[in-house]
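Chapter summary example: a protein plus GFP.
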Amino acid sequence: VEASIPEPQREAWLKNQASGFKGKDEFEKEVVRHVETTLARSMFNCDETAAYAATSLAFRDRLVIEWNRTQQRQTFADTKRVYYLSLEFLMGRALDNAMLNVGEKETAKSGLSDLGFRIEDIIQQENDAALGNGGLGRLAACFLDSLASLDYPAWGYGLRYRYGIFKQEIIDGYQVEVPDYWLDFNPWEFPRHDVTVDIQFYGYVKKTTDESGKVTAHWEGGDTVRAVAYDVPIPGYATPATNNLRLWSSQAASGEFDFQKFNSGDYESSVADQQRAETISAVLYPNDNLDRGKELRLKQQYFWVAASLYDIVRRFKKSKRPWREFPDQVAIQLNDTHPTLAIVELQRILIDLEGLDWDDAWNIVQQTFCYTNHTVLPEALEKWSVGLFQHLLPRHLQIIYDINLFFLQTVERTFPKNREILSRVSIIEESQPKMVRMAYLAIVGSHKVNGVAELHSDLIRTTIFKDFVTIFGPDKFVNVTNGITPRRWLHQANPGLSDLIATKVGGPELFLKDLTLLNKIELSVNDPAFRKAWAEVKLANKQRLADYIKTTTGFTVNPKALFDVQVKRIHEYKRQQLNIFGVIHRYLKLKAMTPEERKEVPPRVSIFGGKAAPGYWMAKQIIHLINSVSKVVNNDPDIGDALKVIFIEDYNVSKAEIIVPASDLSEHISTAGTEASGTSNMKFVLNGGLIIGTCDGANIEITREIGEENIFLFGNLAEDVDDLRHNHTYGDHKTDPELDQVFDAIHGGTFGSVNDFQGMISAVRDHGDYYLVSDDFHSYLETQDLVDKSYADQELWITKCITSVSRMGFFSSDRCINEYAEMMWNVEPLQPETNIGVAKGE
Ligand code: GFP
Ligand code: GFP
């Protein structure tokens, strides 16, 4: 490899190899060095921001040394790698995670204390890396942690958005979006100005024919934008393995600006060109589960996919293997349809640039890719207009047409004279305008397709992808139920509980590497000391959240009350409206009681958090209602501690780390059949909270694992939803009478002008109640009553919590990753012991 140091000089390198700090003294030395040299400050000029920066840099040094070794080990071993392509990585903060994964948090804590800082304050300085909307992006982040912790040779590829998901402010009860400029100081990335790829857009296709008659397509003209790599080290837990997340940033390809324009005096427009190029990676689209069909979004997708594939292909070519071995070296996972263009791009590289035959190339493509579907909601299934494709990616459109043609020909052979099936499965939808169906393209170009929970995988097989099961056979469609990383979601977020569990399991390294070992704590479920300690941990976590609520909202909540939490993106299908209507019902009931009766009611704090997509009017109305109810209820002297309603502003990963460990009850109440899996349901139970939920997504598997007696299920089943909806439209449908009381209160102006909430009411009363809020309302209220009764029996409640936690081992993202590796990727871990030594073969 060109830049390798020749053998005779390597000794000098080996002698001087970089090493990270070892022990507290060296840690302190590194922090002071970074403050004094890297940051050019001193002990007379070191605030918490500087201490955060220096601490992070000290840890970053350690990570990058292992990162280098890991990459080198993987390169020498020359084994198959996994590439996880995701438009979103909702990473949250990195410092705490890095300290825990390398096992040096105690060192840092005591070192920082010597230097005059509290580690908790230092951790708080970091901006969240919020490069995602919700579940899909956070799943990708959990997967990176598991891939590294299990020693899989794996890279993530994504976009380096300058602005992550917007920050949410609540002003007068309304959501206001503020840009999230998170990059002002980010020690966790390495710009690779030497790793760049020029990406083409627009232009035209020219075909040439050689002497043998072989036709080759050439994509020419158009614009070029440069992709620059930024690498983020991903440390594994209790292993030196440190993987890479490569994020691409866009910049003008011609360097700073167009000299011709500059010389002709048009300085302004040459700068404008540069800004246009930078726009591609500027912002994360904030619409979750909604396809808005914007040209810039398609540009983002191609830019990221083309840069990533160029990099993957370049790395493969270093091995000098024949092309047919590509799928033995490379597995590419498409996280949703956002990276589907990678299928087309690889086919283009192989046929246009590398000269392979179509069939050989297509074989390689299909064996390389796998696709994960995350939703059955029709509005979320991506489609792009043929016209837009023609304009932006003319060669890719031709290839899509060819893929479709060959695919439909094989379908026709199997189902002769069946026009219906041909038009149903065509990658091109014959609508006005014609559209490219990305999910179909992803299925046709992959060898495996997975859903993210059993019910969801069944639903995709029997509904949206039914025809494809008939065509390809059932084996192509598999299930991998989602999971979460116990490192961040137990050990980091809830150190008290993690430490307590560790006393029964034989140390954190054991159960954090094999979460099924949690089942050992069930043996202690009747141990009074263990139960007492358990309750103390929960109370401390609730106190921590109560303090946070006090500082951020001014409201005082009683940490002994039942904390009932629903935090997630605001969406009609997730049904925060059902929750807030239930809260209003509770409030009306309390109002009707005498003060003596009220004293008998178990006190509750209803906690909400989540962002609405900026253009999602109904979701914003829901936020407004929650905040209006909060204001009325919390200031009502009749109510006191019996009920408090809290909306936590700007819900994100680092806030989840405070909220999740503090919940007694969390709400996962989507209309049955709409939430593909959910992952926060797993986080809450793992942290010793119970669930009120519908028979939807992973709630069903959680129930199977922890037992029906440990979960509060309610509502209609997925199989009945279609009939109920039909009945709403064509039958004699009446709103639930208890829900009518709630609507009457809103109408009466109890929470401000009814006009502000009319949309939510009409959706139920006049527009068919698509999400079955009224159908499930009674069952929801009854089940909430049951929750109150159960919570009153604290002994039984704690038993339920301990039992549930002990049975949650299945939901580790380590289990998921092993399933993907075995069923879909065919890759094996590469243990650090197989280290072949430094720079031998290069
Ligand atoms: C990667 C890393 C390099 C490292 C090589 C070999 O390069 O820093 O030197 O592996 O260990 F980025 P590519 O695989 O991207 O060529
Ligand atoms: C989507 C689905 C969830 C699922 C996640 C991860 O989440 O049910 O748990 O993907 O697979 F809807 P969002 O991105 O919509 O939050």
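Key point: Residues 1 and 318 are 9 Å apart (CA to CA).
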